[in-house]
Specification:
Elements (H helix, E strand, L loop, with lengths): L6 E5 L4 H12 L3 E6 L2 H11 L2 E4 L5 H4 L2 H9 L4 E4 L14 H29 L2 E6 L12 H20 L5 E8 L5 H6 L7 H9 L8 H13 L4 E4 L4 H17 L9 H4 L1
Helix pairs in contact: 1-2, 1-9, 5-6
The structure holds NADP nicotinamide-adenine-dinucleotide phosphate.
NADP nicotinamide-adenine-dinucleotide phosphate binds next to α1 and α7.
Length: about 270
């Protein structure tokens, strides 16, 4: 997709990977709308990239419902939707606050699913669009301390791969982003001396399995994936084996379904 003049919505665009993507999409000539809770940060990002913003708490249904319509009111139409807002867990699951487990599920899994549902109603009749799901390597591997987070990201990844089969030939592309650790506040909040994760992280560092990905690198690869309509962004490269093994059953199902004619979504037929 040529991003010049395209409208891009990024949830979790107030900082971190979302903020970097906002700048990178804008640099390609796109009009960017960022969504998050912190209005002060959103204002700064929107001003810097010459875009717009909307304040919404995506950890609650009331923040999610109506968001796509609110974005459409501001933009007219949406070409690219990036589900990026997310929250980590960093304690043993049995010691994780119940309310945090609920919010992490709503923000990392329910919100992207519902927003995908809503934006498809807009993209399918147009026969074009691209949806990016910022998942994680934690959706492919288990890791003590990230347990609830791993569950939500595995759900987001497999939801998207199943949706891909349903949307074949409808003109709407899907990209799953699955990075390892990225240098943002999220990683800083999880990786500190004395954290629950520390002993496990120490072992993985010894095994050379924890290179930290610069935020610029992951954002640039997401933009390139949308431009090139690529299915996946997976970093670091040394995790490729995990992804290949994890994706094998999906490829087998996809090949098994070759030639099967599924009913097109109603919105694509209208
Ligand atoms: N950093 C990593 O190591 C890493 C690795 C793999 C995947 N990821 C994924 O990458 C995505 C971005 O993470 P990041 O590293 O950039 O984290 P971050 O720096 O903590 O940024 C998270 C973003 O999500 C927004 N957000 C959080 N709670 C929200 C809520 N309830 N409603 C609306 N927006 C909310 C935050 O804005 P407000 O606080 O203003 O709402 C912020 O813009 C996440 O989905 C994360 O799971 C990160």
């Amino acid at each position: 997709m040529d991003l010049q003049g395209k409208n891009v919505v990024i949830t979790g665009g107030s900082q971190g990977i979302g903020e970097q993507m906002a700048g990178d999409f804008a640099a390609k000539g796109a009009s960017v709308l960022v969504v998050a809770r912190s209005e002060d940060k959103l204002q700064v990002v929107a001003e810097r990239v010459g875009g717009q913003y909307l304040v919404a708490d995506l950890g609650s249904a009331s923040g999610v419902d109506g968001l796509v319509d609110a974005c459409l009111e501001k933009l007219g139409h949406i070409d690219v939707w990036v589900n990026n807002a997310g929250l980590e867990t960093s304690d043993g699951f049995a010691d994780t606050d119940r309310e945090l487990v609920r919010v992490v599920n709503r923000l990392n899994l329910e919100a992207p699913m519902m927003l995908t549902r809503d934006v498809l109603d807009h993209m399918l009749p147009r026969g074009s669009g691209h949806i990016v799901q910022v998942s994680s390597q934690a959706g492919v591997v288990p890791f003590p301390g990230f347990t609830a987070y791993c569950g939500t990201k595995a759900g987001l990844t497999n939801f998207t791969e199943s949706l891909r089969l349903e949307l074949k030939g409808c003109g709407v592309g899907l990209t799953v982003v699955a990075p390892g650790p990225v240098a943002t506040d999220m990683w800083d909040r999880a990786d500190y001396k004395g954290s629950y994760l520390e002993p496990a992280l120490r072992r993985f560092r010894l095994l050379q399995q924890l290179p930290i990905i610069p935020v610029e690198k992951i954002a640039a690869q997401v933009v390139a994936a949308v431009e090139g309509e690529r299915r996946h962004v997976r970093l670091p490269r040394r995790a490729a084996m995990y992804h290949t093994l994890n994706n094998l059953p999906r490829r087998i199902v996809e090949i098994g379904l070759m030639g099967v004619k599924l009913r097109r979504p109603a919105a694509a037929r209208s």
